[in-house]
Every structure is written in structure tokens, then in C-alpha cells.
Amino acid sequence: MRANLNVLRAMLLLVATLALSSSWAGVKNERATPAYAEEQTMLQIEADSVVPDPGLLQSESGRVHMDRHYLGQYGSKEGNVIVQRGGNTWRHLRNGPLATIAGFILLAVPLAIFVFYRTIGPANQVAEAGRKMQRFNRWERQVHWATAFSFIALGITGIIIMYGKKIMLPWMGHDLFSWVAIISKYLHNFVGPLFILCSILMFFTFLKRNFYNRADWQWVKQGGGLISHKHVPAGFFNAGEKTWFWGGVALLGLIMSVTGLVLDFAVGQTRYVMQVANVLHVGAAAMYMAAAMGHAYIGTWGTPGAYEAMRYGTVDENWAKAHHQLWYEQMKTGVPPGMDKDGKMVPGPGGQPRPGPAH
After folding, report:
1. 353: closest CA among 332, 316, 327, 319?
2. Which coarse location class applies to the principal site listed for this UniProt protein (predicted)?
């Protein structure tokens, strides 16, 4: 329980940090030194002037032509700005290391999943008992799929926005690509708030079942049986699913949502805030997509029978017993083995569930 409280505290701290970023952006960076060719050219022209005026970096000029962070609000002082140093920094970071690392992740992860599937293989098929158990109700499935489909739309349009100019423009041509880019931009902007709403609904829908307990540590120590193909006892959600919930849906989803709203509703935002938001947005989205690929693999080809649970809401009894033994026992007896009525592990030999045999 303490670990879950620490996670919630960290998420609240992150929200507060992002909310205060606009106040940081209002502080001028007086120590900033010129670093780019256009700045050097402007300063050289100023220095060579026969009749010196207050410099572009001096407050007496009444202008904010060159400043790394502060710009003033859109619509008021934007026309006074010739060079914003942070713009160059952001452009080189976005189009250089950030695009390269994100692209590598999005290519390496599906390749790694494919290699894992071909070498280690999926979990072994469980013989069906012919009796079904309800695992997810209709509301839970609708929330899950609404979140999934909205994120797929965001992922595709986001990749087009990020890489389309380099990958698609050369063979599409400017006319066709311009339409693809415009449609992608508007879809991304309008589907984004829908994804946020779905993520909030999913968080509260599945929150109760995603708190860690001592049984999860046993699952982690055995790697969830991914390589050995042993069925490690788990509750309704195993430790891997809970980590995806807290690290992906909650943490990365929160970062993407807050930064996405900053970028989507740019009125009143400084460029610096938007540049930081964009870097965080792209980084979180790349990690979310990578984790979602692993989640999708485990929920389909990686674990035969898992897709039916989210598609139809039911699973075979033998599947439930093999993959989620503690939940299965709880459904059958009311209390899972090795746990008390509150779902906490009972100390002693009886409190350590044994892994099931490989099927």
C-alpha cells in the first residue's frame, strides 16, 4: 500500500511541476550567451553601427528581440521577437536526438517482440474445460477499446506529424502530403481530448484491481513465467499488468495528457513552455507506444485465450486457473489461497503460493 501511495504522490508532484512551468518561462535568462549564427550576425551589425542604439539584449531598447525563454504572451509581444534562442535548441533536439531515439524505440520494440515470439514462443495453450467465467463486463471492455482505438489514431497521426516530412513527402509529393499532414494534425488535435477522457475513465474503472500486494513479488521474481512457461499464481491482474497500468496508463498517460493540452490549447502559452511540452510529449508518447506494443502482444499472440477475455468478456475456467490462479480460487471459494478475506498475503508457509506446472 505504501508503494501505491508513493506512486500517487509522484504523479501529483509531476502535475504541479508541469503546471508551474509557465511561471518559469516568464523569467528572463540574463546569463544566456549568443550561440547561433543569426544571433552573432545581429550583434555584429549592432556593434558596427555608427550611431549606437540601446542593444537588442539591453532592457533600454524596450524590445525582447533575443531571449532564450521569455517571449511574453501570444498576441501581445510576439511581433517584437526576431530570434528566440530556445527555438533553435528545441528544433535541433526535436529533429535530431529526440526523433532518432524515438524512431529507434518504435522500430526496435516490434523487432524484439518478433524475435522473442520466434525464439521463446508464446505461453502454452491450456486445454479447455468447457465452462466459462466472466472476467470483464461490458463497461470495462468498452472503456478499454475506446482508449485503445483513440490511442492508435493518435499514434498513427503522431508518427505522420513527426516523421512524415522525411518519410512520406519524397514519394507522395507536396500536394498529396499536405492533405495527409493537415488531416493528421486535426485528427490528432481533436482525438487527443477524447483519449484523455477515456484514460481517466479507464484509470478509475480498473484502479481497485491494480494495487500491488505480496503475491506480485513472487510473480516478479519468477519473471511471470514468460521464459519458463510456468504459470505463476496471480490475482485478477498480475504484476506485469499492474506495472503497465501505473507506468503506462497512469504516469505516461498523465504526461501525454498535460503536455498535449498545453500544445492543443496554445492561447496564452509562451514558446518555451510549448517547446518543453513538445519534448515531453514526444518522449512519453514513444515510451507509451513501445509499452503498448508489449501489452498488445501479451494480450493476443503471447497468451492464447487472453484476447477472448477483452473481446467477449469471458474466459475458460482452465485458462483462469492457469494464468490467474489466485483470482480463480477467489471466484470459487470466496478467499484465494494464502490470503485473508481482505486480499492480503498470510505469513508463513501457507502464505506463499506455489507456481503451477507448465501446461
Report:
1. 327
2. membrane
**Residue that the C-alpha cell 485478477 belongs to:** 236
**275 grid coordinates:** 517547446
Q: Are the beta carbons of 141 and 313 closer than 8 angstroms?
A: yes
For the chain, give every domain's residue range: 214-243+303-342
* CA terminus-to-terminus distance, the chain: 33
Distance, CA of 181 to CA of 102 (rounded, Å): 19
Task: Give dist(CA 255, CA 40) in Å, integer.
Answer: 36
Tens-place pLDDT, residues 230-263: 989 999 999 999 999 999 999 999 999 999 999 9
Output the CA angle 296-144-132, nearest 5 degrees.
85
109/155 Cα distance (integer angstroms): 15
User: What pLDDT score does 358 carry?
Assistant: 44
Segment (H or E) for 316? strand 314-316
CB atoms within 10 A of CB 255: 22
For residue 226, give the nearest of 73, 64, 56, 355 by alpha carbon. Answer: 355
The pTM of this model reads: 0.77
Q: How far is residue 97's CA from residue 303's CA, in Å, rounded to a whole number?
A: 35
pLDDT confidence tier of residue 88, bands split at 50, 70 and 90: confident
> What is Dmax (Cα atoms) for the chain?
93
Spatial contact of 306 and 298, defined as CB atoms under 8 Å apart: yes
